[in-house]
Amino acid sequence: MKDVLMNTYNRLPVTFTRGEGVWLFDDQERKYLDAVAGIAVCGLGHAHPAVTRALCDQAGKLVHTSNLYGIENQQRLGERLAEMSGMDRVFFSNSGAEANEAAIKLARLWGHRKGIDTPVIVVMENSFHGRTIATLTATGNRKVQAGFEPLVHGFARVPYGDLEALHTAAGNLKDIAAVLVEPIQGEGGVNIPPDDYLPGIRELCDRHDWLMMLDEIQTGMGRTGRPFAFQHHDILPDVMTLAKALGNGVPVGACLASGEAANLFGPGSHGSTFGGNPLACAAGLAVMDTLEGERLWQRAAELGAGLASALGEELAATDGVVEIRGRGLMLGIELDRPCGELVGRALEEGLLINVTADSVVRLLPPLTMSDAEAEQLTRQLTNLIKDFLSGK
Ligand SMILES: *Cc1c(COP(=O)(O)O)cnc(C)c1O
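That is the input. Now the predicted structure with pyridoxal-5'-phosphate docked in place:
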């Protein structure tokens, strides 16, 4: 095969040709249980009939016009997202990184409006916010940044989950305009901050007139057991970004804002050719209908709790398991050693998993997974982990 594709991924030796629910089928018709769901994208599983129908119907009517005109599906999806989140206004993009770019631009407008010439956004160690130049600067992982210097000005970094560090930053830096943070770090290793962390950030932001900006690209759309992860607390962010599961595989992202932050952009200050087009928003609307109609975040909470306890029981006596953690269907099993090779071993047995931060097995299965499928996942995965840790 000619190397026509730029060498940006180490791809596994498998090609899928169709999917159904939690199952993927390769070009030999071999079946795989998908506990990654396209990295938290296919929250409703593969080829969900409601999404398929919405896409086919919309493709037959109108795929694209332009943001120069009214777009009914965009208006409706915006209303639905605002209602479910409590946020006021939405800007639609085509990816997570672009949603974060919009958030970063809002933070800078906010800073300038307050008379700060060089506004600073506080970001976290081990964070992930995307691969554009600004979002890779915001990302707290040198591997993502290396080679792409010069990075962008206007970011300061503190440890994740550490309110004291934010207090200290507040004392040391006078130009802070916003804090950008994931409610649970995904790529960073399924890191769950202390319970008072997000409420504490909210309080600090209120006190200093900073924007509280949540990157819910991975945690949003029901995955953690609430529609949005911030809803585990009694708070509302100023800015929230979404993408991944919003279109169940159709590229669509969103930057939502509440209060004054919702009115920072004016005509000409931001835009996107494809963002919020009729087809992408048809997918988003089908996702919203299904998520809300079946209250799938509750299913995620139930199933996630069951999975975590089953995994805990199975692995309780296994040396080398450091911690099993997660919320809803965003689960991490931290081992005491690098375990990237588990991905290939699982693949051979018809199971798709992900390993992040070198030593954390990450599970992000569809919210529609059945109890029997969850049991199969537990059985296969715990056997794989036990064999791996015992050196087999
Ligand atoms: C995946 C992800 C992104 C980037 O989204 P893209 O659609 O790949 O640009 C940003 N932030 C978080 C938390 C993510 O998980």
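The pocket of pyridoxal-5'-phosphate is lined by residues 95-97, 100, 128-130, 182, 186-187, 215, 217-218, 243-244 (CB under 6 Å).
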